[in-house]
Design brief:
- 30% of the residues lie in helices and 32% in strands.
- With 154 residues, it is an alpha+beta fold.
- It has one domain (24-147).
- The strands form 2 sheets. Strands 1-6-7-3-2-5 form a 6-stranded antiparallel sheet, with no helix packed on it. A 3-stranded mixed sheet has the order 4-9-8, with no helix packed on it.
């Protein structure tokens, strides 16, 4: 009887921890079909986003019509035309999911940025091997840190 109680307490603890961590900010990797839908939406409605760009590496889409803000470092450039970022978006959108990527849950270079309280902060499309992190400034503001891992040749 005592063993059953201990087991129930441990199980309840795991459930509570998983519920608490579910609302924490995170990057959500998207399946190929979702990436393609969102890619098309971003291409068609790009003027509804504040778009930042790191040449040959990443594009960040911050929706204009929400109360959330993504802050960026000096490495990012704000763009006002589609031509500068469209190739990164297309190169890093998967057309199919491989068995291993689904099974292992591996992260693609096409991410939803989910903030506190499950708020959508925007989308980040980047080179898959680059390092990305964020810092919560307040409930409606996060800062993106991006570190390219590929060294550009001369």
């Amino acid at each position: 009887m005592r063993l059953i109680r201990v087991g129930l307490v441990v199980l309840l603890g795991f459930l509570l921890i998983s519920c608490v961590t579910a609302s924490e900010p995170r990057f959500n990797s998207l399946r190929a079909a979702d990436q393609q839908k969102i890619q098309q939406q971003l291409e068609n409605n790009w003027s509804e986003y504040i778009i930042y760009y790191i040449p040959q590496h990443a594009v960040l889409f911050d929706p204009k019509d929400d109360s959330n803000t993504l802050k960026v470092s000096g490495r990012w450039t704000r763009v006002g035309d589609q031509k500068t970022w469209i190739e990164i978006l297309r190169q890093n959108t998967q057309s199919t999911d491989s068995f291993f990527s689904v099974w292992m849950g591996s992260r693609s270079g096409f991410l939803e940025i989910i903030g506190p309280d499950e708020q959508l902060f925007g989308y980040l499309v980047h080179e898959k091997m680059d390092l990305v992190a964020f810092k919560i400034i307040d409930r409606n503001t996060m800062q993106i840190f991006y570190s390219p891992q590929r060294i550009e040749g001369p």
